[in-house]
Write a structure and sequence with these properties.
The protein has eleven helices and eight strands. By secondary structure, it is of the alpha/beta class. The chain has an eight-stranded mixed beta sheet, with helices on both faces. Guanosine-5'-diphosphate binds next to helix 5. It is a peripheral membrane protein.
């Protein structure tokens, strides 16, 4: 198991005798431990470095209050800074879905949990916001993926667009748009094709669909266990297609959640939801303080 940051720091400060104010040396010693803790939590190196620098500026010279140990005080400063970086703009978990029918484009690599997340979010919109949702799969190369969305739709009681063999993704998107308008849907969600790697064809396809439906939200689904890779994927998708928010999946796993910090620090995109399992209810809005707690251990 990981040693928690609080444990590490209490060890460090036991060896330090100075009291009164946090000296530069105290802070430096403590921050070495913070950096290791961040790296162990899978935060990327440049992000960990910048983060530590920001904390150092805040901590140096701060008066040590009587009620807490210097170690606890540094942990508090680190915790507050984590929350500051993790918190994005807007209500966590809110989606722009005014002006019905509102298109939501779901993008991400194959296996990231995109189809599952599409169905989870559709269910949530239906149950919590009483929205009529239509889902459509654009993954024409993988009939099994289209079938999977239809099955999940039945399971959660959300309509899916009928599958018409031989259609191009753009045609499906157009048909979804038309049906969403004519059928009086509030939201339509497009589950775009995923591939194992980002390639030109994938991006061109997603961009063409984006231009047809003009999504209110483009949600990137990334596997939260993939750390730095998740951040690279996000930068690329955002640069080429434009992303309005991120869903981190597999946050039920053993990972310490460092990808969330790197994601926010590098892309600046709000993390809107986290996936917490395979079941259709296993999704919740992103809570910065929960992730901060996990990173600190
Ligand atoms: P896609 O290829 O991106 O559409 O990925 P899928 O939606 O088919 O998901 C791939 C696998 O990951 C499936 O077995 C899902 O049940 C699983 N999965 C998706 N989201 C989560 C999550 O948040 N936690 C866990 N543990 N598994 C997930």
């Amino acid at each position: 198991m990981f040693e928690s940051l609080s444990d590490r720091l209490s060890g460090v400060f036991e060896r330090l005798t100075k009291q009164g104010a946090l000296s530069e040396d105290d802070v430096k010693t403590a921050l070495r431990e913070v950096r290791v803790a961040l790296l162990e939590a899978d935060v990327s190196l440049p992000v960990a470095r910048n983060f530590v620098k920001a904390v150092q500026d805040k901590a140096t010279g701060q008066a040590v209050t009587k009620s807490v140990t210097p170690g606890q005080q540094v942990v508090k400063i680190v915790h507050d800074e984590l929350i500051a970086v993790l918190t994005g703009e807007g209500e966590p978990g809110s989606l722009k879905i005014d002006n019905a029918p509102a298109p939501i484009l779901m993008v991400g690599l194959q296996g990231s949990g995109k189809t599952t997340t599409t169905a989870k979010l559709a269910k949530r919109l239906k149950e919590r916001q009483n929205k009529r949702v239509l889902m459509a799969s654009l993954d024409v190369n993988r009939p099994a993926a289209m079938e999977q969305l239809a099955i999940l739709g039945q399971q959660v009681g959300v309509d899916t667009l009928a599958i018409v063999p031989g259609e191009r993704p753009e045609q499906i998107a157009q048909r979804a748009k038309t049906q969403a308008s004519l059928g009086g849907y509030d939201v339509y969600m497009l589950d775009t094709a995923g591939r194992l790697h980002i390639d030109e064809a994938l991006i061109a396809e997603a961009a063409a669909v984006r231009d047809i439906v003009k999504p209110r939200e483009t949600l990137l689904v990334v596997d939260g266990l993939t750390g730095q890779d998740a951040v690279n994927v996000a930068e690329e998708f955002d640069g080429k297609i434009g992303v309005s928010g991120v869903v981190l999946t597999r946050m039920d796993g053993d990972g310490r959640g460092g990808a969330a910090l790197s994601m926010r620090a590098v892309t600046g995109k709000p993390i809107k939801f986290v996936g917490l399992g395979e079941k259709m209810d296993a999704i919740e809005e992103f809570h910065p303080e929960r992730i901060a707690g996990r990173i600190l251990g």
